[in-house]
Design brief:
By secondary structure, this protein is mainly alpha-helical. The chain has one domain: Winged helix-like DNA-binding domain superfamily/Winged helix DNA-binding domain (Arc Repressor Mutant, subunit A), CATH 1.10.10. 55% of the residues lie in helices and 9% in strands. The chain is built from three helices and two strands. A two-stranded antiparallel ribbon has the order 1-2. β1 and β2 form a beta hairpin. α2 packs across α3. The longest helix is centred in the N-terminal third of the chain and has 17 residues. It is globular. It starts with a helix and ends with a strand. The relative contact order is 0.21.
Length: 69
């Protein structure tokens, strides 16, 4: 499924920071790396969830899981 360039940047940043840190980054961390607002990150993550690329695990902080690309 196709994603927008902004969604791809957020997805790539989630994957890269997860590998580097050993845990999923927070929205503010992603926003700082990309130089965008946390609201923009939230919007892109929600679109990725709707497309079935990322899943939220509720009840946990920083609860994103990349399930498809």
């Amino acid at each position: 499924m196709r994603v927008t360039p902004g969604q791809y940047r957020v997805l790539s940043t989630i994957q890269e920071l997860s590998e580097e840190q050993g845990y999923v980054p927070s929205y503010p961390q992603i926003a700082a790396v990309l130089g965008v607002s946390t609201q923009a990150v939230h919007k892109h993550v929600e679109a990725l969830v709707e497309r079935g690329i990322v899943r939220k695990v509720y009840g946990m902080s920083n609860s994103l899981e990349v399930i498809s690309q």
